């Protein structure tokens, strides 16, 4: 197909259906919402179907009318059974949702389907609606995320691991969130013959002034201390202790002129959040660091001046924006992170980033230009903290901030992500829709497995 004709196909109005398990406020949900809004802004007709969307616990675009969000497939199967079998229930709920779309003929109103996280819907769509073009977005293989801390758990996962690889391979095209995820995916599912494409997630590129009433003496910096900021959920895999132990290696004078602020997602109902926060506070005590915990913005105003480490639990978006504006350095501690949105949020705010030299940050951060990449060694991280806070000349810091913003605008904006997705949908149109007798048989097997499991659960 000629270049001009290909471009015309890619720019023509598309009817795109999104299928997503639970439209909450996680990173995957943020990507789905941004992708849908971006494609809609490019003139396409977008509808999102999900098994769950709590209007009190979702992103603004999902409840204020920006997006057409509809809930289906949530009336038979619960999210879990007595706190267990979450993956089985999630698969069956997506099967229920997909059958609902097929039985109501909703599928016929769309030409393209965007599916992420769960691929259980793909065999059903292939079998009953083979003309629809399917794009599967892989944030990270669930096969590698699931815990296998016992023999029973390992055996329980075997059919689901096989099912994930089989159903994902039935998509027309598969896109992933980073080159790192692409390499991991290829290792996890070597038999999938599709060429994996990379479509980076995006970050909001308009940094609004935070709507927080700030007195003459701003909180967190009212004693002139420079802020080292960490933003992550309170989960052990985030390795937040690296930031604390590295900060403890600064001299006493340097610590008196700085403060480590650890902010992020925290839910008192999640035992890991509670115990990990307690463990981090105890670590501060062992290292001789004064720590304090604030659960809201008001309480952060009265932080003792000698506080070295401040924990901020479940910060709202406005406070997060303010923290990024006041920080001198963002430290991003998790290893082998699939992608990592927080470093981009820091760069668009003009804050240099220190991150673990693995995973997604290798693709988002330019060493020495927009930040630093280091292994998880306290001394190396402490050295970068000293450089960023006390040794970096103002002109160099300003140039680093400018390069960070430029990089985000060039590669990681909503417009850029929507453009790339548009191209991928256009590539599906240009190529052949995979099909034929073998595919139909394989899809039929997948359908039989899904329906059989649903029947067994209801019996």
In a nutshell, what does this entry contain?
The protein is an alpha/beta fold.
Q: What features would you describe in this structure?
A:
The protein is of the alpha/beta class. The protein is built from 19 helices and 14 strands. The strands form two sheets. It has a seven-stranded parallel beta sheet with strand order 3-2-1-4-5-6-7. Strands 10-11-9-8-12-13-14 form a seven-stranded parallel beta sheet, with helices on both faces. Strand 6 (173-176), helix 8 and strand 7 form a beta-alpha-beta unit. The N and C termini lie far apart (52 Å). Mannosylates Man(2)GlcNAc(2)-dolichol diphosphate and Man(1)GlcNAc(2)-dolichol diphosphate to form Man(3)GlcNAc(2)-dolichol diphosphate. This is Alpha-1,3/1,6-mannosyltransferase ALG2. Residues 25-203 form the Glycosyltransferase subfamily 4-like N-terminal domain.
Write the layout of secondary structure elements.
Blueprint: H1 3-11, E1 15-22, H2 27-41, E2 45-52, H3 60-63, E3 68-71, H4 86-103, E4 112-116, H5 121-128, E5 133-138, H6 142-145, H7 151-168, E6 173-176, H8 179-188, E7 197-198, E8 226-231, H9 241-248, H10 252-256, E9 258-264, H11 271-286, E10 291-294, H12 297-300, E11 309-313, H13 317-326, E12 327-332, H14 342-348, E13 353-356, H15 361-364, E14 371-374, H16 378-391, H17 394-411, H18 414-430, H19 437-458
Parallel strand pairs: 1-2, 1-4, 2-3, 4-5, 5-6, 6-7, 8-9, 8-12, 9-11, 10-11, 12-13, 13-14
């Amino acid at each position: 197909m000629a270049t001009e004709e290909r471009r015309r196909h890619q720019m023509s109005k598309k009817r795109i259906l999104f299928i997503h398990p639970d439209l909450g406020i996680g990173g995957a949900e943020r990507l789905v919402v941004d992708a849908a809004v971006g494609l809609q802004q490019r003139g396409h007709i977008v509808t999102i179907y999900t098994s769950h969307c709590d209007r009190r616990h979702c992103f603004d675009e999902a409840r204020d009318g920006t997006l057409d969000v509809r809930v289906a497939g949530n009336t038979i199967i619960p999210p879990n059974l007595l706190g267990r079998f979450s993956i089985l229930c999630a698969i069956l709920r997506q099967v229920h949702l997909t059958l609902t779309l097929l039985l109501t003929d909703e599928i016929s109103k769309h030409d393209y389907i965007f599916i992420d996280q769960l691929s259980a819907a793909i065999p059903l769509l292939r079998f009953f609606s083979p003309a629809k073009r399917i794009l599967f977005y892989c944030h990270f293989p669930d096969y590698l995320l699931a815990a296998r801390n016992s023999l029973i758990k390992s055996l329980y996962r075997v059919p689901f691991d096989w099912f994930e690889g089989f159903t994902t391979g039935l998509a027309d095209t598969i896109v992933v969130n980073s080159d790192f995820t692409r390499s991991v995916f290829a290792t996890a599912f070597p038999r999938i013959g599709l060429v994996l494409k990379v479509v980076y997630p995006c970050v909001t590129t308009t940094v609004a002034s935070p709507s927080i009433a700030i007195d003459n003496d701003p909180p967190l910096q009212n004693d002139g201390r420079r802020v080292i900021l960490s933003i992550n959920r309170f989960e052990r895999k985030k390795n937040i202790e690296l930031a604390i132990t590295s900060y403890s290696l600064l001299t006493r004078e340097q610590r008196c002129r700085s403060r480590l602020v650890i902010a992020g997602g925290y839910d008192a109902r999640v035992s890991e959040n509670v115990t990990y926060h307690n463990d981090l506070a105890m670590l501060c005590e062992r290292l001789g660091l004064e720590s304090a915990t604030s659960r809201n913005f008001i309480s952060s105003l009265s932080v003792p001046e000698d506080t070295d480490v401040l924990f901020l639990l479940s910060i709202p978006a406005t406070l997060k924006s303010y923290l990024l504006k006041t920080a001198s350095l963002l430290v991003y501690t998790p290893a082998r992170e699939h992608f990592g949105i927080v470093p981009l949020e820091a760069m668009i705010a003009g804050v240099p980033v220190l991150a673990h030299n693995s995973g997604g940050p290798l693709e988002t951060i330019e060493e020495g230009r927009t930040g630093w990449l280091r292994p998880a060694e306290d001394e190396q991280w402490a050295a970068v903290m000293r450089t960023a806070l006390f040794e970096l000349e103002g002109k160099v810091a300003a140039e680093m901030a400018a390069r960070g913003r430029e990089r985000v605008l060039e590669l990681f904006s909503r417009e850029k992500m929507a453009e790339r997705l548009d191209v991928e949908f256009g590539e599906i149109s240009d190529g052949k829709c995979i099909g034929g007798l073998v595919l139909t048989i394989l899809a039929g097997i997948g359908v039989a497995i899904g329906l059989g499991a649903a029947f067994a659960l209801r019996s």
